[in-house]
């Protein structure tokens, strides 16, 4: 299996804390993810607000590629928002 598709469990509280540190609403973070992706790859990939809510509130498992997108929007290393 490709590492980008491997399911991982993000630390929802860490994601929320970092989002609040930037004073981002969930929609603001979704937009920041798109901007960070555009700068990094030339493609404006992002996630939905519903997926972000699932990550923050229910620690939903997501593909590692999605974790990297969220980390890009939060300007951090993906490992920093990975659950132990």
What can you see in these coordinates?
- The protein has 84 residues and is mainly alpha-helical.
- The protein has one domain (3-79): 434 Repressor (Amino-terminal Domain), CATH 1.10.260.
- Helix content is 55%, strand content 5%.
- The chain contains four helices and two strands.
- α1 (12-21) crosses α3 and α2 crosses α4.
How confident overall, as mean pLDDT? 95
Strand order within the widest beta sheet: 1-2
Described by strand count, sense and barrel closure, the largest sheet is: 2 strands, antiparallel
CATH second-level architecture: Orthogonal Bundle
Q: Write the CATH fold name.
A: 434 Repressor (Amino-terminal Domain)
In short:
By secondary structure, the protein is mostly helical. It has helices at residues 12-21, 26-41, 49-58, 64-73; strands spanning 7-8, 62-63. Strands 1-2 form a two-stranded antiparallel sheet.
Which helices and strands appear, and what pairs or packs with what?
Elements: E1 7-8, H1 12-21, H2 26-41, H3 49-58, E2 62-63, H4 64-73
Antiparallel strand pairs: 1-2
Helix pairs in contact: 1-3, 2-4
Features:
84 residues, mainly alpha, 434 Repressor (Amino-terminal Domain)
């Amino acid at each position: 299996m490709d590492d980008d598709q491997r399911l991982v469990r993000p630390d929802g509280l860490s994601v929320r804390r970092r989002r609040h540190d930037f004073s981002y609403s969930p929609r603001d973070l979704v937009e920041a993810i798109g901007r960070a992706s555009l700068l990094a790859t030339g493609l404006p990939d992002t996630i939905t607000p519903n997926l972000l809510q699932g990550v923050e509130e229910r620690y939903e498992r997501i593909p590692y590629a999605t974790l990297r997108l969220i980390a890009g929007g939060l300007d951090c290393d993906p490992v920093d928002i990975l659950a132990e």
